[in-house]
Design brief:
- This protein has 5 helices and 11 strands.
- By secondary structure, the protein is of the alpha+beta class.
- The protein folds into 2 domains: about 100 residues, Pleckstrin-homology domain (PH domain)/Phosphotyrosine-binding domain (PTB) (PH-domain like, Roll), CATH 2.30.29.30; about 70 residues, 2-Layer Sandwich (Trypsin Inhibitor V, Chain A).
- A 3-stranded antiparallel β-sheet has the order 1-2-3, with no helix packed on it. A 3-stranded antiparallel β-sheet has the order 4-5-6.
- The N and C termini lie far apart (about 130 Å).
- The relative contact order is 0.09.
C-alpha cells in the first residue's frame, strides 16, 4: 500500500500548464523533494503525437504525448488523461499564437511605415513652406547674412550706394530685393545694396 501510495503521489503531483504564449512542464518527485521545471514556446514545436501503449490505457483514455522541439530534446508528457484532447488543445493554441505573432509583426510594420511616412510628409512640408523675407535694412552685411540664413535664405550683394546720412556707417544694408515681408521659397536669394561713404563727386551729383 505504501508503494502504491508513493507511485500515485509521484504521478498526481506533476503539473502541465498551457498558457497563451508557452507551455510549462513541472515534474515533481515525491511532492517537495525535487522539482524539474521546463517551459516551451509554441513557435518552437515541430510535431506532436500521442502514443497509447495498451488497450487498458485506451479504455481509460490515458496516453503519452510527445512534443518534438526544434534544437532541444523531445518533451514527453507521460500517462496523462485525455491525451488526444491535450494534443488538439496544444495545436489550437499553437495556431492561435502563430496568428497573433503574425498580426503583431504586421501591426509593427504598419506603425513603422506610418511613422516613416509622417516624417517624410513633415520634411516635405517644411522644405516647401513659403516664408516672408526678413527686414535686413540698416544691418551690417554679416548680421544680415546671419538673419537670412536662420530662415533658409541667401544674401547676395548687388552693389553699393553712397550714404548721405551720417548716422548710417558704410557696409550697412540700404535697400533689399525682394522687399521685407515678400513671400519666397526657402533657399531663395535676397539681393542687398550696401552703403558706402559719399565722395565729392557723389555730393556734387546731389
Amino acid at each position: 500500500m505504501l508503494s502504491i501510495g508513493i507511485i500515485f503521489t509521484n504521478y498526481a503531483d506533476d503539473v502541465y500548464i498551457l498558457s497563451n504564449k508557452r507551455m510549462f512542464d513541472i515534474q515533481r518527485r515525491f511532492i517537495f523533494f525535487f522539482e524539474n521545471h521546463r517551459e516551451l514556446e509554441y513557435k518552437n514545436i515541430k510535431d506532436i503525437k500521442v502514443i497509447v501503449p495498451n488497450v487498458l490505457q485506451r479504455l481509460l483514455d490515458i496516453g503519452d504525448v510527445y512534443v518534438d522541439i526544434s534544437g532541444a530534446p523531445t518533451l514527453i508528457l507521460p500517462t496523462i488523461d485525455h491525451p488526444f484532447f491535450v494534443l488538439d488543445k496544444i495545436n489550437e493554441i499553437k495556431t492561435h499564437a502563430a496568428k497573433a505573432e503574425g498580426l503583431k509583426k504586421d501591426n509593427d510594420l504598419k506603425k513603422e511605415l506610418h511613422d516613416w511616412f509622417g516624417k517624410v510628409v513633415t520634411s516635405l512640408v517644411d522644405s516647401t513652406q513659403m516664408k516672408g523675407a526678413p527686414n535686413l535694412e540698416n544691418m551690417d552685411l554679416l548680421e544680415a547674412m546671419g538673419v537670412a540664413n536662420e530662415l533658409g535664405f541667401q544674401v547676395n550683394v548687388f552693389g553699393e550706394e553712397p550714404s548721405t546720412r551720417p548716422e548710417i556707417p558704410p557696409g550697412r544694408v540700404m535697400h533689399q530685393n525682394p522687399p521685407p515681408g515678400t513671400v519666397i521659397q526657402p533657399g531663395g536669394e535676397i539681393q542687398v545694396v550696401l552703403s558706402r561713404r559719399a565722395t565729392t563727386a557723389d555730393l556734387m551729383e546731389f
